[in-house]
Amino acid sequence: MRMRHKLGQSLPSLRLAILGAAVWGFAMGASAFLTVLFDHWETPVRVRTVVLLFAFGGAVAFPAGWTLARLLSHSRGRETAFAAAFVSLGVMTVGLTALLYALQYRTYYAEWHAPAFTITWAFQFVFTGLVALYQFAVLGLRLYFPGGFLALFAAALWFACRSR
Questions:
Q1: Burial class for 153, CB neighbours closer than 10 Å (0-12, 13-18, 19+)
Q2: Are 60 and 96 in contact (CB under 8 A)?
Q3: DSSP code of 114?
Q4: pTM across the whole model
Q5: Sign of dihedral through CA atoms 67, 68, 71, 72?
Q6: How far apart are CA 142 and CA 140, in angstroms?
C-alpha cells in the first residue's frame, strides 16, 4: 500500500508529462540533428529518420524518467534530486531510444528471418536485437553529445530546484 501511494505521488501531472515529453523529445531530436548536420550527412531521408527516432525516444522516456527520479529522490535533498534526475532521465532516454532502434532494426531484418516462433527465429530475434543495441551504443550515443548532455544537465537542475 505504501509503495502504491509513493508511486502515485511520483507520477507527473498530465500537463507536465505532455509538455515535458514534447520539450524533452524536441531537445533529443535537436541534439541528434545538430550532430548529424555537423557530420555532413547527405541523405535527408536518413537524417529525418534518425532525428525522429531520437525525438520519439526522448518523448517516451520523459514521463518514465521523471517518475523514476521522483521515486529515487523522495524526501531527500537537492543534491540527491539532481543526481536522481540526471541518472533517471539519461538512462531512460538512452535505453528507450535504443529499444526503439532495436525494434526498427529487427523490423528491417525480419524479411530474411525464419518463420516466427521457431528455434531458428528465436536465435535470430535475440541476436538481431543484441547487434542493434551494440550498434546503437557505438554509433548512436555520440548523437547525444554535446547538446543532449547539456539538456540533461539543465533538466536535472530544473528537477532539483522544482522538487524541493
A1: middle
A2: yes
A3: P
A4: 0.92
A5: negative
A6: 5
Are 134 and 98 in contact by the 8 Å Cβ rule? The answer is no
- HSE of 159 in the Cβ direction (CA atoms, 13 Å)? 35
Query: Residue 131 and residue 138: Cα distance in Å, rounded?
Result: 11
DSSP class of residue 138 equals I
Nearest alpha-carbon partner for 85 in 27, 24, 153 = 153
| Cα gap 104→90, rounded to integer Å | 21
Residue position matching grid coordinates 524526501:
75
pLDDT in tens, 114-141: 999 999 999 999 999 999 999 999 999 9
| Contact by Cβ (8 Å): 19, 1 | no
Which single residue is written with the C-alpha cell 550527412? 41
Cell numbers 514534447 label which residue? Answer: 22
